[in-house]
Specification:
The chain is of the alpha+beta class. It has 4 helices and 2 strands; from the N terminus they run αααββα.
Length: about 80
């Protein structure tokens, strides 16, 4: 997904392997069947936050777009891994 590359998400995430962050497959499994999944992930990928990686705080990036439609696509893509 181009947006993931442009937003440097793949530095810490991959689709099926654990890197610094959980794989998107893991995330999809975690949110499977949860009604609030889309809302939660939308917030997570659009609002910059801090995450702990091996005890060190790092900035969690946000997607480089303001297009709500693109964000929705991305979230649904992650959830359907
Ligand atoms: C600095 C490394 C890093 C970058 C860059 C990064 N992430 Fe993450 N991400 C993490 C870590 C670590 C977690 C786990 C945080 C937690 O569970 O508190 C995480 C969690 C997530 C989750 C799961 C959230 C949840 O509630 O389970 C999603 C979805 C996600 N990232 C998407 C993205 C997207 C999309 C981008 C690009 C805009 C991105 N990440 C960039 C490290 C990163």
């Amino acid at each position: 997904m181009k947006l993931l590359e442009d937003s440097k998400c793949l530095k810490c995430h991959s689709v099926d392997k654990k890197k610094d962050g959980p794989s998107y497959k893991e995330t999809a499994a975690k949110y499977k069947g949860k009604a609030e999944a889309e809302a939660k992930l939308t917030k997570h990928v659009t609002v910059p936050s801090k995450v702990k990686i091996d005890g060190v705080e790092e900035d969690h990036g946000a997607v480089k777009t303001r297009d709500a439609e693109k964000v929705r696509n991305l979230v649904q893509w992650i959830l359907s891994r």
